[in-house]
Write the structure tokens for this entry.
Amino acid sequence: MDKISLRTLFHTNEHEWNSIYKILINSPLTHVLDFNISPGNSQKQFPAFFYYTDELVKIITDILPETNELAVIIKDIPPIAIDSFYRTCLIEEIKSSNDIEGVNSTRKEISTALEEQGNTSASKSIRLWSTVNKYAKLQTDQDISFMNSNDLRMFYDEFISDEIRRVDPSNLPDGETFRKAPVEVWSKTKVIHHGLMPESRIITSMNKALEILHDNDIPSLVRVAIYHYLFGYIHPFYDGNGRTSRFITSYYLSRIISPLVAIRLSITIKKSLRTYYKLFSETNSYGNRGDLTPFVTGFLWLIQKSIIRVKTILKDKHSQLDYYSNLLNGSYFISDKTDKSICFVLLQAALFSEDGATLSEIAGTIGKNDRTIRTHLSSLPKGYVIINTNHRAHRYMLNLKKLSDEVENAGEKQEK
């Protein structure tokens, strides 16, 4: 079945709009959901549904081989490099998610919260500690329950309530589970959506949305996209809805595809923010009449874009790793075996990390103690190591330009 825009037909031919709607809602390719939509903030309710188009099926089928290709690329890169890249992406992801909502945060704040993850007593004093804690656990495949409204509220309290409290405590949930007062979603100068009311309806609707999220009769990525929309439509909290729904989406993407794709969701959305908002506004319109197909298709396109971007970045970094590894192996200035092992770790830190590797990370990677690493670092040729002193535990990375210049100059001298 070709993709048909009910929203467009509503504005051009209302008779055809009604006819096409009946065809779509009764099509064998259509999945009608146990969830009613009141589009355009109207009093009328329509069942939410989606149907399989050529475009939607193609995106779903294309994502599988792209995911397999990504897995192969990740397997070829040293684990410490992947861990460093994950840390870098995590910092950028949380900042991007905050930026989308107009919440000010810095990379340093997020990095500090990440460094303090081993200190649970810091959870109340370090800003964003709890948010970082949840994102960091995506890499460990830790289970988080999202089976019902109570689970969601429990997660919200652990994930973002401290952040909401710091900014405006009046925005914390005041109902039995969610909020008990109305909320409006604004776009610059006008209201574009009203969150559901009363709270009893919010709870019932959220439980239905979570049932859809776990409905195995629907392809996993499709139900994740549907839930992402339904969360925004319900708008269960006064504040933190966007950040919470993007994390939940990332949680399931980490299991379906890869943690590295999961923690680049907000980064991708931020770069395509107009498309992201347009998906919501068009799906919410009265003329759309509960059709979630355009949203699902557009949202899966954003996920596919994230996969492709991660593949491209890692391919490029892997190529650079091979290039500089060859320079390092051929260097006349670094001949000691332990020095070369340390420099290889520093090389990975320079290419894959945000700010370098600590002494403990270097020591753990090559099986030496911190004192040995410190001694060898001090004996390396001057300028080979870049030291980042902006952290309590100093971080180190290889000076790639210095390595290139030294090897190139050595080669020129040998030719003469």
User: Anything to note?
Assistant: The radius of gyration is 25 Å. The chain has two domains: 56-311, 330-415. The mean pLDDT is 93.
